[in-house]
């Protein structure tokens, strides 16, 4: 790559290096504040760390080129590298990168809410009721013993403490069956974020054995247009990779909820019952106790899936 106007080339190298530093700092901000969890699943964070390092290296290289007195650089390729030929074109080009970086620093990181949920199908029953299959997750190279996982499952049913931010590995079919047996054996199901999606699936698949049990769960208030005033969905967004593939899971609830605004986070305790909705039999909570809660530090749950051997 050879350019006769070295000052113009240096300017573009310098501004591109600054843009990359800005992007790296935005990524750094998300990592330090842990707001990166609002956008991607924990299993993807290691790639963000890698991207952060690459961005820093590239920005340093470009800034060094922009401040170097060397007359030209050659990449020994056949094509000609061109730069914007006017100030207006430069502003338009670099503005496409600077604007989102600036807004990323100036505005708060919002959590997905009802405005997004209303444009996506909400899962009130297990997918297996519709297609008789269990979603298979990708095989993992990490190994976790069944005994350790069963201990964690028991804790998730009986403990309502804050969940770990680490994304769990896919359940084996044996572990999924063990979790189902534990749910059938307990009288009080306390939903834990760690196994939220598998428990939702089991509740709908094995609903006849769950009716009458006490359940405690939390989520944000969501309403379908055809709901009665005393009906809501206690909803959660589930993420596999990032917010782009997020889906909405939830449990219908019935009680004194007409005064609750949409997106209000609540924790409820009640009895499990069943109701017909949209042609399907779905679980519903008859609310006994309800309290408003702040938005959790990590508002999303993760669909770990079931690994089919």
Automatic annotation (TrEMBL):
<dbReference type="InterPro" id="IPR052955">
    <property type="entry name" value="UPF0703_membrane_permease"/>
</dbReference>
<feature type="region of interest" description="Disordered">
    <location>
        <begin position="152"/>
        <end position="177"/>
    </location>
</feature>
<dbReference type="InterPro" id="IPR048447">
    <property type="entry name" value="DUF1980_C"/>
</dbReference>
<dbReference type="Pfam" id="PF21537">
    <property type="entry name" value="DUF1980_C"/>
</dbReference>
<keyword id="KW-1133">Transmembrane helix</keyword>
<keyword id="KW-0472">Membrane</keyword>
<protein>
    <submittedName>
        <fullName>DNA-binding protein</fullName>
    </submittedName>
</protein>
<feature type="compositionally biased region" description="Polar residues">
    <location>
        <begin position="152"/>
        <end position="170"/>
    </location>
</feature>
<feature type="transmembrane region" description="Helical">
    <location>
        <begin position="20"/>
        <end position="41"/>
    </location>
</feature>
<feature type="transmembrane region" description="Helical">
    <location>
        <begin position="47"/>
        <end position="64"/>
    </location>
</feature>
<dbReference type="InterPro" id="IPR015402">
    <property type="entry name" value="DUF1980"/>
</dbReference>
<keyword id="KW-0812">Transmembrane</keyword>
<dbReference type="Pfam" id="PF09323">
    <property type="entry name" value="DUF1980"/>
</dbReference>
<dbReference type="GO" id="GO:0003677">
    <property type="term" value="F:DNA binding"/>
</dbReference>
<dbReference type="InterPro" id="IPR048493">
    <property type="entry name" value="DUF1980_N"/>
</dbReference>
<keyword id="KW-0238">DNA-binding</keyword>
<feature type="transmembrane region" description="Helical">
    <location>
        <begin position="91"/>
        <end position="108"/>
    </location>
</feature>
């Amino acid at each position: 790559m050879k350019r006769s106007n070295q000052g113009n080339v240096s300017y573009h190298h310098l501004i591109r290096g600054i843009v990359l530093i800005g992007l790296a700092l935005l990524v750094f901000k998300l990592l330090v504040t842990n707001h990166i969890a609002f956008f991607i699943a924990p299993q993807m964070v290691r790639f963000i760390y890698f991207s952060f390092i690459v961005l820093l290296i590239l920005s340093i290289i470009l800034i060094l080129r922009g401040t170097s007195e060397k007359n030209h650089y050659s990449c020994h390729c056949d094509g000609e590298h061109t730069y914007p030929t006017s100030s207006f074109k430069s502003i338009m080009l670099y503005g496409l990168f600077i604007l989102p970086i600036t807004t990323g620093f100036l505005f708060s990181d919002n959590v997905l809410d009802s405005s997004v949920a209303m444009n996506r199908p909400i899962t009130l029953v297990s997918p297996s009721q519709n297609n008789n299959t269990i979603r298979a997750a990708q095989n993992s190279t990490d190994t976790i013993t069944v005994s350790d996982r069963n201990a964690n499952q028991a804790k998730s049913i009986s403990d309502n403490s804050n969940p770990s931010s680490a994304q769990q590995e896919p359940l084996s079919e044996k572990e999924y069956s063990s979790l189902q047996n534990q749910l059938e054996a307990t009288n009080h199901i306390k939903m834990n974020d760690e196994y939220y999606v598998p428990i939702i699936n089991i509740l709908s698949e094995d609903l006849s054995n769950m009716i009458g049990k006490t359940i405690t769960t939390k989520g944000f208030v969501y309403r379908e247009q055809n709901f009665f005033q005393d009906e809501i969905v206690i909803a959660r967004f589930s993420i596999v990779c990032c917010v782009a593939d997020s889906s909405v899971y939830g449990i219908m609830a019935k009680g004194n909820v007409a005064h609750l605004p949409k997106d209000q986070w609540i924790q409820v305790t009640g009895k499990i019952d069943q109701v017909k909705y949209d042609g399907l039999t779905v679980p519903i909570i008859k609310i006994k106790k309800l309290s408003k809660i702040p938005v959790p530090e990590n508002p999303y749950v993760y669909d770990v899936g079931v690994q089919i051997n």
